[in-house]
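Closing statement on the adenosine-5'-diphosphate sub-project.
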Amino acid sequence: MNSKIKFFQSIHFKIALVFALMLILTLEVVGAVFVRQLERQNLSTFKQQIELPSYVDNSLSEQLVRTNTKSANKQISQILSDVNNSNITEIRVFDSKGVIRGTSNVNNQSIVGEKTTDENVKNAIYNNRSYNQNVYDDSNNTRYYVSAVPLLNTSSSNNNVVGVLYIKANLESVYANINSITLIYLSAALVAIILGLFMAIVISRAITRPIDEMKKQTIRIARGDFSGQVHVYGNDELGQLAGAVNNLSVRVEEAQDSTEAERRRLDGVLTHMSDGVLATDRRGNVTIINETAADLLSTTPDEVRSKSILDVLDIRKDYTIRELLDNQDEVIIDLSSGNRELILHAYFSLIQRESGFISGLVCVLHDITEQQKVDRDRKQFVSNVSHELRTPLTSVRSYVEALTDGAWEDPDVAPGFLKVVQDETDRMIRMINDLLSLSRMDSGTSKLDLEYVNLNELFNYILNRFDMILKNENEDESSKKYSIDRVFTKKDLWVEVDTDKFTQVVDNLMNNAVKYSPDGGVITARLLETHNHVILSISDQGLGIPRADIPHVFDRFFRVDKARSRKQGGTGLGLAISKEVINMLGGQIWVDSVEGRGSTFYISLPYVPYEGDEWDDDSQNSK
Ligand code: ADP
């Protein structure tokens, strides 16, 4: 756009050129007329100057009509020598027969008596008319004026031609005069042209400078630089144009600012939207994509720009752009792949101009993976609960039926049957209680009753209870034997916990360790601290958990071996509750297990060592 204008293409040059050409043309025309006029004027003056007085003509006519030629010639020569006119080069007198009767040229008297060959002279004699002519003499590069004037017989009344007066005059002086005047004129014209040219340059500069400034300003405006101002030189058309350009600059800047602000606002809105947004052109090629959409589609804006939205969303096999444009559907897109589950809800709408012209599509993507998962989990949960309750209820019913059918009378089986009914009912109550506490934690209505406790003491207290159970059971030969090893840090660890809930968690882990341990196994309980956590672990030498099941053991109702767990009165909710409790306490719970070798369950809780030290060792603080 901003190509450099060559000097010869510029208005500046064109104006100067037109100006100069007009000046030259005018001077040329005026000069031509003037020189021609000057020449004519000078020549006519010259002709008047070389005209001989009429008495000379008369005297010559008188001599020519005389019969005594000799004396007449003498007289003629005398008359001619009397003529004193410096402009005249030579005067010749011819009689009516064309014979030279005299010449003013003293050196050429010998031609007297010769007959003329000059056409002008002959014509003057025959036609009784004057002839004159400018002739150029090559021999001495001189221009001459020659005239042949008939001489008339004045004495007789019939006025017949008696001879011709031939005058030859040198014109060089006339032309020298004309030339010198022409030269003066030409020099004046040259000076005028130079001055004119100079003025043309100055004037055209005055015109083109504001134009040039405006051009530069408009280029700056186009580049987005609105800082400049065109100088307004006056109130003429150019001045007004300059004013208009300045005004335009302000308007464009305002417009640009508001578009920019609008764009930034839109950008901001798009960037901070939690939904993904894609916009396409009419052919369905992506023009705008926000970060959220790029993240959801695990791509980058640059990668998808100008690709078809059908490919970007991977819906080419189900939809065409026309279908999306015609009925802006809501589409569920399943982009799950391998280990990543991703379900998107895509809502399409049209970008339409006021005129109704459709210029593209907007697609809003909403990640509904979590929602779908929650839905699925809820359904799964309901089905699990129904299933879990149906099994004990079915067995209770069959035992109750057997009892009603008469087994109650049989003292051998009745107590056994009633024991099963009682156990199953207990288990159902436990399960319902577990479900209730889970539901309370889910809904956030379960409140923590936090207090600082010495974790070493608390853990030890819980383990002591298990030792007691073991001692009591040991009297019963059939029950399982195990021992508990304690590996505790010496330091007292004061941690803020809800004692009841924490005890429930440790109980649960210990129960599991006992449940899934072999007879005579060793259960190791450890307690240690890192610089801002306490870590509590319970290891057993039991069955262990298959590697594939490890991620699921904290899921509700998950059991590695359903039948076995149920037989031992498990609900499959213990670890799920433990996890919820530990999370509420701000800690973490995880498991490390090798199938067939045993499992270790870990709990870590946040711990601030300084406060513990304050209670333990006052001397440290008094430093
Ligand atoms: P349950 O009531 O069945 O014990 P939990 O939620 O306490 O339910 O445990 C879930 C499942 O995790 C158990 O069914 C069992 O398969 C497995 N599990 C828990 N603790 C252990 C352990 N110490 N050793 C082996 N497997 C275990």
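Residues 617-623 have pLDDT under 50 and may be disordered. With this model delivered, the sub-project is considered complete and its resources will be redirected to Aim 3.
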